[in-house]
Hints:
Elements lengths: L1 H15 L5 H12 L4 H8 L3 H22 L1 H19 L5 H13 L2
Helix pairs in contact: 1-2, 1-4, 2-4, 3-4, 5-6
Amino acid sequence: MMLEKTTRLNYLFDFYQTLLTPKQKSYMSLYYLDDFSLGEIAEEYNVSRQAVYDNIKRTEAMLEQYEEKLLLFQKFQKRQELLTKLREYMVFTNQNSEIESLLSELEKLD
């Protein structure tokens, strides 16, 4: 469950990080991407561990709100699912080169 949450938040961070403040970006990057502890981040920024925790929790909630409204991650997941199905279907047709070309174009959109 924790890994699923971490993976989801990493994706949300990828999609919405431009909407975050520099401090929010830094805390989230250190915590989720670089695997820093709350204490290590607090020490780095000379703030309390609680301040880091509160900031991360608020940022997580913001990322979820952005996703609720914009659905970028949901649409990405659906595209990946469709691409997989198309690749599986491709095995059963003789149009492989044309389908492969179209799939490659679709993948470039992400």
